[in-house]
TrEMBL record:
Protein name as catalogued: TetR/AcrR family transcriptional regulator
SUPFAM superfamilies membership: Homeodomain-like (SSF46689), Tetracyclin repressor-like, C-terminal domain (SSF48498)
DNA-binding region: 31-50
PROSITE patterns reported for this sequence: HTH_TETR_2
Keyword annotations: DNA-binding, Repressor, Transcription, Transcription regulation
Sequence ranges assigned to domain HTH tetR-type in this UniProt record: 8-68
Length: 188
């Protein structure tokens, strides 16, 4: 049991180190050797825990999803989305890693492409349900929730990219609250 605990702790250290290396260099620029060095292992030692770079990437994405455990779609509200944006503004390394992987995943052969494709389909469905719950069949603009959901997701991710590039001049939570005003919500 103690050995399993040590192994689990070591795997968690490796995943955190991989997250840092990917945030700094992107997935393609990250090497197993760099991750191993960061946690004081040889590359062979790291391969004992994660047999491939792709396996490590999957572990990083799964860990990120655990950190971002969010309410199911039926529990989402626009004010909770605003809170999520504020929360993300306190975690630049996590946002940077996610954004770097997302950007790289648009290529056909990227190992995270399937993950992000499935994730975005699910997020768009969640946002469609949220918008239906908030506005019914039409938003104040006249758009349907189905039309507005991809736009909402684009604003969330687009603000993250702008904030990562220029955090001094992009107030991500404030800009998202301004977007909610465009949707017809009362200004905070």
């Amino acid at each position: 049991m103690a050995a399993k605990t040590r192994s689990d702790q070591r795997r968690a250290e490796i995943v955190r180190a991989a997250l840092e290396v990917i945030a700094e260099r992107g997935y393609r620029g990250a090497s197993l050797a760099a991750v191993a060095e960061r946690v004081g292992l040889t590359q062979q030692g790291l391969l004992h825990h994660f047999p491939t770079k792709e396996a490590l990437l999957v572990a990083v994405l799964e860990e990120r999803d655990q950190w971002d455990a969010t309410p199911r779609a039926r529990e989402w509200r626009l004010d909770l989305l605003a809170s999520l944006v504020e929360y993300n503004a306190m975690r630049p390394a996590i946002v940077q890693t996610f954004s770097a992987l997302l950007g790289e995943s648009v290529t056909e052969d990227h190992p995270a492409r399937g993950y992000f494709t499935r994730r975005y389909a699910s997020v768009r469905e969640d946002m469609t349900r949220l918008l239906h719950a908030e506005y019914g069949e039409r938003l104040p603009s006249g758009l349907t929730p189905e039309q507005a959901a991809p736009l909402l997701v684009a604003v969330l991710d687009g603000l993250q990219y702008q904030w990562l590039l220029d955090p001094e001049n992009v107030d991500m939570p404030g800009a998202f609250r301004n977007f909610l005003v465009l949707l017809g919500e009362t200004a905070a």
